[in-house]
Amino acid sequence: MFERSRKGETALLIQPHAGGPPDEGLLEEFADLARSAGAGVAALINARIDRPNPATLIGSGKLEEVKAACEATGADLVLVNHPLSPVQERNLERALQRRVVDRTGLILDIFSQRARSAEGKLQVELAQLKHIATRLVRGWTHLERQRGGSIGLRGPGETQLETDRRLLQKRVEQLQKRLDKVEVQHAQMRRARVRSELPRVALVGYTNAGKSTLFNALSGADAYAADQLFATLDPTVRRIALPGGNAVLADTVGFVRDLPHELVAAFRSTLSEAREADLLLHVVDAADPAREERIAQVDAVLAEIGVGDIPQLLVYNKIDRIAVRAAAQDDADAAAAASMQPRHDRPGEARERVWISAREGLGLDLLRAALGQRLGLRRIHAELRLPPDAGRLRAHLHELGAVRAESHDEHGWRLRLDLARADAVRIATHAYGAPLQALLLETGGSPP
């Protein structure tokens, strides 16, 4: 075996593809992934594969071409935009005398750099160990040597490979227990947010669509935002003010096409914010020529994690970056966005859309109004009489800041309310919230 370079800063990229012309968008995204991991891209090579080689994925001729390109460019790392079996990875490394990393390994490396919270780091390590476990295949002779043969160690013994597998499995079990404990704590926190009666909104979308920038613009937070893939991994939750009431907004990890399933499973925490949301803000890069394809890819991942039926509001972000398209294309969307005019579209059968620029602050008021409408945040301005035994309901209304004036007599309390209708509906579903049901009927609409 060769001596593995510890640098891996100069990468040669291989894009396998079936018959027909290669997908340039796929290769460009893979190059962005490589740069996000900190690698410089020395060369990009398309490799047509009609029948994958079980030993090396690519054919012998292409393998020689890759080896020559590595020598010419000085690349010390080869990145393959395709899952590699352990055997394929090992054979490629032996033939190229360089480190070889597949798509899953590259995304895991990026995740390991970006995770900031203790839970995020645990999730990344768990996913990495599960990936490494499949790579423990007698690639190095020291893994085959048996313990035993010396005094006190004779017997069937245990190979170093078996020892490594056992220790790795033990670490995986430890991490899983710690993550389960953290998940219980987060579930308790989420239940507390549910008890606060605030509707929940989750930002979802293709990576680098501007979710974190929008999150900061709506919430006033300072979550990390950058023009790179997977800038956000750890979930961030903030309360935001909307016309008619408040809501809870959660930022989540961005998706890419062919997101490895083990990563979807590993990041349960950030995805649980999407699973428990009342509304998904699906953020789209309006300047991306492949935006419709990106929307479909995100929808596919959302369906995979079980949130495909949650209502969505499409947010076309980055309208300040859209280049003016040819008038002959007759693209109304492009024309409106190119002129940097935010708008709120509610076409007949299509999904509701809001066009904004989070970075420039364009259209944020439109988006807040759309959110308020979708979440039913109309307000109730009325007087409510409470009997003396309705102390719990009175305390809850005070917690929400809904009581503007209050008086008390022998019959109970008289409260003047300024309350979000959605909050009133939620409270009225509880046994102690029964006094609100008559008020809901008086102010229009049916109680729950």
From TrEMBL:
Monomer. Associates with the 50S ribosomal subunit. Residues 1-20 are annotated as: Disordered. This is GTPase HflX. It comes from the Bacteria. InterPro entries: G_HFLX_dom, GTP-bd, GTP-bd_M, GTPase_HflX, GTPase_HflX_N, GTPase_HflX_N_sf, P-loop_NTPase. It comes from Cognatiluteimonas weifangensis. Residues 199-379 form the Hflx-type G domain. Residues 158-192 form a coiled coil. PROSITE patterns: G_HFLX. GTP binds at residues 205-212, 230-234, 251-254, 317-320, 357-359. Pfam families: GTP-bdg_M (PF16360), GTP-bdg_N (PF13167), MMR_HSR1 (PF01926). GTPase that associates with the 50S ribosomal subunit and may have a role during protein synthesis or ribosome biogenesis. Its main location: cytoplasm. Belongs to the TRAFAC class OBG-HflX-like GTPase superfamily. HflX GTPase family. The keyword Cytoplasm applies. Keywords: Coiled coil, Cytoplasm, GTP-binding, Magnesium, Metal-binding, Nucleotide-binding. Its cofactor is Mg(2+). One of its GO terms (cellular component) is cytoplasm. Mg(2+) binds at residues 212, 232. The gene is hflX. It is found in: Cytoplasm. One of its GO terms (molecular function) is GTP binding. PANTHER family: GTP-BINDING PROTEIN 6-RELATED, GTP-BINDING PROTEIN HFLX.
